[in-house]
Write a structure and sequence with these properties.
single chain, alpha/beta, Rossmann fold, 5-stranded antiparallel sheet, 5-stranded parallel sheet, 15 strands
């Protein structure tokens, strides 16, 4: 018996037999023939008891002492071992690499099933590409009043002539949701909580309006070079690599931990996450990009923006995007709530202490 999320048992068995880390899925995890398995990008989490691999769940809150299966690994009674590693191909020519990315991205967003689907929309190129693939799906954005993400989403939705649902946040929303998010994700540090909160709250609203699937642009920044630190890595202390491709690989390797947090938050909100820009075909094409199609001068996500030409309006294709915790003002307002509750900035980890007080 097997219980897998995201792929058939036959496909995963074949991937194990031939060592193919990207066998054409959007991620998978679960039990296969008595062994726990998780895909190489870590798009779907799975957990077992730390001292008993036979006791497992997709939800860590079901377990007494949950231990996450690392991406690309299997775990059973004999131990844990790595079975796949993320490919590190030589860069293709500029023309071939761009053609591959354009084909992969276009195919992934256009093959989305719109049944019961809503789209997380921030007005950036990532979420706009996802939205372009499902023209009948409603778009949802969240943030505090006058936040960057709400303003950008309104502008982009108008340019795309799309229906936008705005989930305006309040301090009470944060106070209520912090414990729920922390318990669901097993994360209490301020950065993780601030990232997961807007995802949870916007997905919660989509679920309340009858949608059980939520499409996001997850993975685009990591795969295509959306972070400032990949532009000039040799002079940026935030990365160890000295090349654009090397710095981009470092960010891709952070995906399993990030996706575990995000997927658990979204599931706790009542929706199933859908991430077309993390399909194996997109991952494979992105990994073969040369430096200049990842980041060049002041432009980031060069290849992804080129792939978006003709699919989204030019104003949206070129738009800058802030990280969700800053674009929604959630990070700022968590800090404000902490200070109002007596946790001053001069105190060590004052926001973390405030989060801890809400959990008590």
């Amino acid at each position: 018996m097997s219980h897998l999320d995201g792929a058939s048992a036959e496909l995963v068995r074949e991937a194990l037999a031939d060592g193919d880390p990207l066998p054409g899925t959007i991620g998978f995890a679960g039990e296969l023939d008595g062994t726990l398995v998780r895909d190489v990008v870590g798009r779907r989490p799975v957990f077992s008891e730390a001292d008993d691999p036979g006791a497992w769940s997709f939800d860590p809150t079901d377990l007494r002492e949950p231990a996450s299966v690392p991406a690309g690994h299997v775990r059973d009674e004999t131990g844990e071992r790595e079975v796949w590693t993320l490919p590190d191909p030589e860069p293709e020519s500029r023309a071939d690499a761009q053609a591959a990315v354009t084909a992969a991205v276009t195919s992934s967003v256009r093959n989305l099933d719109s049944d019961g689907l809503a789209v997380a929309f921030s007005g950036g190129v990532d979420s706009a590409l996802v939205a372009a693939g499902v023209p009948d799906a409603p778009l949802f954005v969240t943030g505090f009043e006058d936040s960057h993400d709400v303003a950008a989403a309104r502008s982009a939705a108008a340019a795309m002539d799309r229906d936008l649902h705005v989930v305006e946040l309040t301090h009470e929303d944060l106070r209520r949701a912090v414990p729920e998010v922390a318990i669901a994700t097993r994360r209490t540090n301020p950065m993780d909580v601030a990232i997961a909160l807007p995802l949870y709250l916007v997905a919660e609203r989509a679920a309340a309006e009858g949608f059980d699937r939520f499409a996001l642009g997850q993975g685009a920044d990591e795969l295509f070079g959306g972070y400032a630190k990949v532009v000039d890595p040799a002079s940026d202390h935030r990365v160890d690599a000295e090349t654009v491709r090397g710095a981009r690989r470092e960010t891709v390797l952070t995906l399993p931990e990030q996706l575990e947090r995000d997927v658990l938050a979204l599931r706790a909100a009542g929706v199933k996450p859908v991430a077309p820009l993390l399909h194996d075909r997109v991952v494979r094409a992105a990994l073969a990009l040369p430096d200049e199609l990842i980041a060049a001068d002041s432009e980031r996500k060069v290849a992804l923006r080129a792939a978006a030409e003709g699919l989204v309006p030019e104003s949206v294709r070129a738009a800058d995007k802030k990280a969700v915790q800053y674009g929604t003002y959630v990070s700022r307002e968590l800090d404000r709530l902490a200070r109002r509750a007596g946790f001053k900035r001069r105190m060590e980890d004052h926001v973390g202490q405030y989060i801890g007080s809400l959990l008590e």
